[in-house]
Amino acid sequence: MKKDFAINGLEAMRDFAAGIATHLAGHGAVLALEGDLGSGKTTFTQALALALGVRRPVTSPTFTLVCEYPLPGGGRLVHMDLYRLGGESDLDSLGFHEYLQSGDIVCIEWPDRAGDEIPPDAIRMHFAHGASEDSRTVTVDGPLP
Ligand SMILES: Nc1ncnc2c1ncn2[C@@H]1O[C@H](COP(=O)(O)OP(=O)(O)O)[C@@H](O)[C@H]1O
Ligand SMILES: [Mg+2]
Question: Which range of residues forms the domain containing residue 74?
Answer without folding.
Answer: 2-141
